[in-house]
UniProtKB/TrEMBL annotation:
It is found in: Membrane. One of its GO terms (biological process) is vitamin K biosynthetic process. Keywords: Membrane, Menaquinone biosynthesis, Transferase, Transmembrane, Transmembrane helix. Pathway: Quinol/quinone metabolism; menaquinone biosynthesis. Its main location: membrane. This is 1,4-dihydroxy-2-naphthoate octaprenyltransferase. It comes from Lacticaseibacillus rhamnosus (strain ATCC 53103 / LMG 18243 / GG) (Lactobacillus rhamnosus). GO terms for molecular function: prenyltransferase activity. It is a multi-pass membrane protein.
Length: 312
């Protein structure tokens, strides 16, 4: 397998959807908790990126194996188009899963066992997203789980590995009692910072499903737009696109985010234009890229604002 084909298999161009939430969580740890652990941050970044690539490759493998449409299987899916051996792809997926898991274990040793539970939950959702008898991506749940795992899980873990145990959350075990405790104000503050990545990542999935609704019907995938219908789908899409702007304003008002994060509001006009453009013509070829632009704009400017809060 050549490097270009591997990068296409793992869809490396989509990894901003992981990198930007990672940056948000890391910078939140610095601005809110004034803490930064460079080694934990590096280990988590590598593990996160490898696991994200693994789930994407698994998604492509499952789509190839379960495809009902021969044209999609042989001409659209990268495995059929590049004539890759599915067995070789499966072995590559397993290697990436093992490497990401080992790095996760190292991080657990360096932090505490609550991270193990968080990581296991993210791993489970990431794998079940495309694997198993009833993958989440083939149900009207893909937007919810992708938004939660990538938009919430990644920033929370990126924050957690940078701070001392107990400053955000802690799990106390005194058999037979298990107590989960945390700083409620800090949790709310981090939650406000996570709304932008959660909403925009969920919107990527929603836009993808709105664009592929006919192909999904042929391949027996029952996605959210099939249940929302033509009236609700564009309205939910617009609501998710705009949610992050309100969250940032509330975050600044309540002191959860530095005032510099209001730079996100500069993206309003372009995001509104992109939303209207996509809603008028939901197409993978013509307008899907506007959803990606919105994700990069909103999260990129939030990263910029958090970074300015660190420097200034």
């Amino acid at each position: 397998m050549s490097l270009p084909i591997f990068l296409e298999l793992v869809e490396i161009r989509t990894k901003l959807a992981s990198v930007l939430p990672f940056a948000i969580g890391t910078l939140f740890a610095v601005t809110y908790f004034h803490a930064f652990d460079w080694l934990n941050t590096l280990l988590f970044f590598i593990a996160m990126l490898i696991f994200d690539m693994m789930t994407t490759a698994l998604n492509n493998l499952m789509d190839y194996q379960k495809a009902k449409d021969a044209h999609y299987q042989q001409e659209v899916n990268v495995i059929g188009r590049a004539q890759l051996d599915p067995g070789m792809v499966a072995k590559l997926i397993l290697v990436m899963l093992v490497v990401a898991s080992l790095l996760g274990v190292v991080l657990v040793v360096r932090t505490d066992w609550l991270l193990l539970l968080m990581g296991m939950a993210c791993f489970a959702i990431g794998i079940l997203y495309t694997w198993g008898p009833l993958p989440l991506s083939r149900l009207p749940l893909g937007e919810i789980f992708s938004g939660i795992v990538m938009g919430l899980g990644i920033p929370v873990i990126a924050t957690y590995v940078n701070i001392a145990p107990g400053r955000l959350l802690a799990l106390d075990l005194e058999w037979p009692t298990v107590v989960l405790r945390g700083d409620f104000i800090a949790i709310i503050a981090l939650g406000l910072a996570c709304i932008t990545p959660m909403a925009t990542i969920a919107n990527i999935m929603l836009a993808n499903n709105m664009s592929d609704i006919e192909e999904d019907q042929r391949n027996h995938r029952h996605t959210l737009p099939m249940y929302l219908g033509q009236w609700w789908s564009p309205r939910v899409y617009a609501l998710l696109a705009y949610a992050g702007f309100l969250a940032v304003i509330l975050g600044v008002i309540f002191g959860a985010l530095p005032i510099w994060t209001l730079v996100v509001e500069l993206a309003w006009p372009l995001v509104i234009r992109n939303v209207h453009r996509f809603i008028r013509d939901p197409s993978k070829q013509r307008t899907f890229h506007t959803a990606v632009i919105n994700l990069v704009l909103e999260n990129g400017l939030l990263v910029l604002g958090l970074g300015m809060g660190v420097v200034l």
